[in-house]
Design goal:
17 strands; alpha+beta
Length: 467
């Protein structure tokens, strides 16, 4: 395997080292470009004074043109993230049967995921990934004695995700075979109105941190990376999920804005007068006004008839095309309310396209999770050296389940049928799953006691009636 020293000379000047590390050899769209599509406050329509002109009145006041800015890209990113991770990622541990040590290791790994709050973290970082096309998660240990992982540990594992959305510039450095040799990120911090820019780099054995104060220099001596592995997991994509449909959103915005301008222009009443007005208009009071007309004359207001159906059709078709091309369903309240009370199987069928999309996206995420699991195992070896030879023997399978509203009755019926019509969980497991008992075992004992009392009463009634 290549080493970063084969490509970059770290004995050179700080400026030359950082310049080399910033040579990004993966194609990722610029966040400056994507932000103008993702953030509805930066959409083109808000600043377009050619196609949508403000009107200057005679008195110098300005009548603003209507400008509808719709955050459809942001909604799409949320939908994609929710379909991916609203149901938490399930981890299945293999190669642990009949081995108490490996089973304990599996529980420790699961505890690391739990106390790092990976359930909610997955939702947050997936939104950052689908919005900005790249993320990087750094795992690190902080000194804090605890027993969270099933053993006495001097350290607690934490993670932090970096994204261009949060002001970080990400610079992975890959060799020609696609192996990451270094990872760097650049960011700025403002303290007491003074902004400082930093550049950090992780290699498999060293952590560097530079500061720019008129020129790059190391903040401190490089630190050793004790796990002998880059503790950063990077994920990127060449195109945002919304780039190919942003033009549809833009068309909807302009259609609605132009129509709103037409409505505003024609909303003022227009008085139609046929014939000649005789004399001055008589004012009875503010509510009653009279016109004297010659024979055959008439006065009335002109009504404006807009072809609203064509507009509605255009906008509706554009919305359907937007969601269809992204393979995401339009699960707005109005759409869902029209479906009525459909069954579980029908819901699965309706979401087929979305589930296929999740399956398509899952591959990259599972690779990401596997690399993350490798980093966690490396830390765990250092935290509990007694497990060093067994940790890598524990295999972790990550399962992403696309979102669907669960029908518990249908699920139980299906599992019982597969189990030959026999129960699929014990009484105690059922009480725990219900979740309303503070002490499930005590609740089960009370149920058994009540059942025993009912049986005794029934037996007594049978023998009493026989006598």
């Amino acid at each position: 395997m290549s080493e970063i020293s084969d490509y970059i000379d770290f004995s050179g000047t700080d400026h030359s080292i950082i310049t080399s590390l910033m040579q990004k050899n993966v194609h990722v769209p610029s966040w400056c470009h994507l932000r103008k599509l993702y953030n509805y406050k930066e959409h083109k329509i808000l600043f377009d004074t050619v196609n949508l002109r403000d009107k200057i009145r005679k008195d110098g006041s300005v009548e603003k043109s209507s400008r509808y800015s719709i955050g459809m890209e942001r909604l799409l990113v949320r939908r994609m993230s929710e379909f991916m991770f609203s149901i938490p990622v399930k981890r299945v541990y293999h190669n642990t049967d009949n081995n108490a040590v490996r089973q304990t290791i599996a529980r420790a790994i699961e505890a690391i995921y739990k106390y790092s709050r990976l359930k909610t973290h997955n939702l947050k970082r997936s939104k950052a990934f689908y919005a900005a096309c790249e993320i990087a998660t750094l795992w690190y240990a902080v000194k804090k004695p605890n027993k969270l992982y099933g053993f006495e540990s001097q350290y607690k594992l934490k993670c932090k995700t970096f994204s261009p959305m949060n002001g970080y510039e990400l610079y992975p450095y890959f060799d020609e075979y696609g192996d990451m040799l270094a990872f760097s990120f650049k960011y700025s911090i403002t303290v007491n109105n003074e902004t400082k820019t930093y550049f950090e780099t992780y290699t498999s054995d060293t952590h560097y941190k530079w500061i720019d104060d008129g020129g790059w220099r190391l903040v401190a001596d490089p630190e050793e990376v004790i796990i002998m592995k880059i503790p950063v997991i990077y994920l990127s994509r060449p195109e945002a999920i919304y780039e190919e449909v942003s033009y549809i959103r833009e068309e909807i915005e302009y259609t609605l804005s132009r129509n709103s301008n037409v409505i505003a222009y024609n909303s003022a009443p227009i008085l139609k007068i046929i014939g000649e007005i005789l004399g001055d208009r008589e004012m009875k009071n503010e509510d009653q006004r009279m016109f004297r007309m010659n024979s055959g004359g008439d006065v009335g207001y002109v009504s404006w008839n807009q072809a609203i159906e064509a507009l509605k059709y255009n906008v509706q078709e554009s919305k359907e095309l937007f969601w269809s091309l992204t393979q995401m369903p339009d699960i707005s309240f109005s759409n869902m309310s029209r479906l009525g009370n459909i069954g579980y199987d029908a819901r699965e069928t309706l979401l087929t396209d979305a589930h296929l999309k999740v399956g398509d996206e899952s591959g990259d995420w599972i690779e990401f999770f596997e690399r993350e699991d490798s980093v966690i195992k490396s830390f765990l070896k250092m935290m509990n050296t007694a497990w060093e030879n067994e940790i890598d023997e524990v295999e972790v399978e990550h399962i992403i389940t696309p979102f669907i509203q669960r029908n518990e009755t249908a699920e139980i019926t299906k599992r019982m049928a597969a189990n030959g019509g026999k129960p699929i969980e014990s009484h105690l497991e059922s009480i725990k799953r219900y979740g309303q008992s503070n002490d499930p075992q005590e609740t089960l004992d009370m149920i058994r006691k009540e059942q025993a009392e009912e049986t005794q009463i029934a037996v007594a009634d049978v023998f009493g009636s026989a006598n």
